[in-house]
Write a structure and sequence with these properties.
With about 70 residues, this protein is of the alpha+beta class. Helices cover about 35% and strands about 10% of the residues. The protein has one domain. The chain has 2 helices and 4 strands. The strands form 2 sheets. The protein has a two-stranded antiparallel ribbon with strand order 1-2. It has a two-stranded antiparallel sheet with strand order 3-4. A hairpin with a 6-residue loop joins strand 1 and strand 2. It binds zinc ion (ZN). Zinc ion binds next to helix 1.
């Protein structure tokens, strides 16, 4: 397990967004570090949630946990 400096911004290879905080590991290869939003998206996608619904769920997460943004 690689050590991650959480205070440093990282660029998500999945969406290209710069993010801070703890990354998620992509389900696609179990290696690529992606932003927490994409981690959530992949999890939702795997259970068949539509893009529209993913967006509204992520929006809700941000509203309730702004520090994860
Ligand atoms: Zn991302």
């Amino acid at each position: 397990m690689k050590e991650v400096n959480e205070s440093r911004p990282a660029v998500c290879p999945r969406c290209g967004k710069t993010y801070y905080g703890r990354p998620a590991v992509s389900r696609e290869d179990n290696t690529t570090l992606i932003c927490p939003d994409c981690g959530t998206r992949e999890a939702l996608e795997s259970i068949g949630v539509s893009i529209e619904e993913q967006n509204s769920i992520i929006e809700t997460i941000h509203r309730h946990a702004p520090r994860l943004r």
